[in-house]
Amino acid sequence: MEIEVTRDVIAAMRAAAIAAHPREACGILTGGDRRITALVETANVHTCPQANFEIDPQALIDTHRSAREGCAQIIGYFHSHPTGAARPSQTDREMAAHDGKLWAIVAGDELMVWEDREDGFRQVPYSVA
């Protein structure tokens, strides 16, 4: 199943990845109906941000609260791989919640979207809206 990602969100993810380099950038993807319409860029609070990411818990709480109040829903998460490929790393696979959320990963000029399924990550095709 294909999803749509707005051009602005793609630009924001790429800009965040460049700005954070050599650390991993991260954020929360929001929207609805298989359409990613916004990126909530967050601090990477992991103790080793050069090789891992952890979304700021307060930002996650705030975004969940906004969604409950009728704002855009959390579709998934974004992070960058400063030195790797735009595929889930071993660490990503170990930390995944298997909750069906989307993970957008930026590595250099490459952007790939993955669905975090119970049986592991599966690549999701996307179109630019």
UniProtKB/TrEMBL annotation:
Keywords: Hydrolase, Metal-binding, Metalloprotease, Protease, Zinc. This is M67 family metallopeptidase. CDD domains: MPN_like. Pfam families: Prok-JAB. It comes from the Bacteria. Residues 3-127 form the MPN domain. It comes from Erythrobacter ani.
